[in-house]
Amino acid sequence: MSIKPATQMDVAFEVKATLAFHDEDVKATIATLLGDIKHLRMQLGLPKAAMSRGMTRGWTPTFDREV
To answer: Does the pTM exceed 0.70?
Structure first.
């Protein structure tokens, strides 16, 4: 399964949609996104703690995005 990188048009649409969801409140939008990041990091910590390297053939989940 390959994931296509988002285009600038995709990102611009997502930004507009996210702001619209929060009635153009930038602070509320950022707060929600930061909460989502915190939640996803906690969810990622669960498999990282439970998985062995042999189970995934050397791959381990990471918290930081690779550029």
So the answer is: no
Instruction: Encode burial over 34-59: b for 16+ CB neighbours within 10 A, e otherwise.
Output: eeeeeeeeeeeeeeeeeeeeeeeeee
Q: Cα–chain-centroid distance for residue 12?
A: 17
> 40 versus 60: which is more confidently predicted?
40
Q: Which amino acid is at 23?
A: D
* Tens-place pLDDT, residues 43-60: 888 777 776 666 666 666
CA distance 47 to 54: 13
